[in-house]
Amino acid sequence: MARPLIQMALDSLDFDQTVALAEQVAPHVDIFEIGTPCIKHNGVNLVKALRAKFPDKLLLVDLKTMDAGEYEATPFYAAGADICTVLGVSGLATCKGVIKAANAHGAEAQIDLINVSDKAACARATAEAGAQIVGIHTGLDAQAAGDTPFGDLNDIARLGLPVRISVAGGIKQSTVQDVVRAGANIIVVGAAIYGAPSPAEAAREIRELVDAV
Ligand SMILES: O=C(CO)[C@H](O)[C@H](O)COP(=O)(O)O
Fold first, then answer.
1. Which InterPro entries does this UniProt record tie to the protein (predicted)?
2. Ligand 1 centroid – CA 168 distance (Å)
3. Which ranges of 30-104 does DSSP label H, i.e. alpha helix?
4. Does residue 98 contact residue 109 with C-beta atoms inside 8 Å?
5. Nearest 5°: phi and psi at 158?
6. Which of 46, 149, 179, 212 could form a disulfide with 42 if both were Cys (CB 3.0 to 4.6 A apart)?
7. For ligand 1, atom 10: residue with the closest CA
8. 0.90 exceeded by the pTM?
């Protein structure tokens, strides 16, 4: 298996703080995720700024698109996004729109399985439609209620679909190696890095743990 990628979730609303945090953790992560609240607040200009500052990093824009897939995603790919997310609950037509926009830009579409009731069916159908990545995702509100992404990760990994698997939802130092072993190709980390006393140090620890598996 290719080396798992580490994705840093940039979840601040503040433009300058987001860029500053990206600078701190850059040596240790592969993908910068512009989180949903952050992209809603700052828009496409933040994509352009991060693209210009970090030409060698992958950029994921967490649009969580729910409708008008191609129309919504196109300007973000055009601004330099490598990956945009679309909600599996939006339905196949919207997912296909984002996949089409991704393909038109030589980029990738990620299907977020958050709150999808039949995750295996959604993952199968969207993989068949050409999605490159499916995201197992326990959102922040569900985490607060005690949920974790681990069971869903095992279920989806077992399907052996021709997609990369991303996992998000409270991943931290004590769980990151288990998710790598369970088959995650992209490990998303937010609070465990940005909430640490030293985000750079926390990102470095995560990198070491992932690379040691
Ligand atoms: O997409 C998100 C919320 O919808 C977060 O960015 C994602 O869950 C990662 O953050 P954390 O590691 O704090 O859960």
1. 3-hexulose-6-phosphate_synth, Aldolase_TIM, HPS/KGPDC, OMPdeCOase_dom, RibuloseP-bd_barrel
2. 6
3. 36-42, 44-53, 69-78, 92-104
4. yes
5. -65, -25
6. 46
7. 190
8. yes
- CB of residue 152 inside a 6 A radius of ligand 1: no
Give every CB contact of residue 36 below 8 A, 6+ residues apart in sequence. 62, 63, 64
Q: Is residue 7 within 8 Å of residue 166, measured between CB atoms?
A: yes
How far does the centroid of ligand 1 lie from the alpha carbon of residue 171, in Å? 9
CA distance 186 to 164: 7
- Can you tell me whether residue 31 is helix, strand or coil? strand
Of 41, 87, 188, the residue with max ligand 1 atoms within 8 A of its CB, to mutate for a pocket test, comes to 188
- Confirm or reject: Cβ of 62 under 6 Å from ligand 1: yes
Domains of the chain: 5-211 (3.20.20.70)
For the record, the structure tokens of 212 come out as: 């040691």
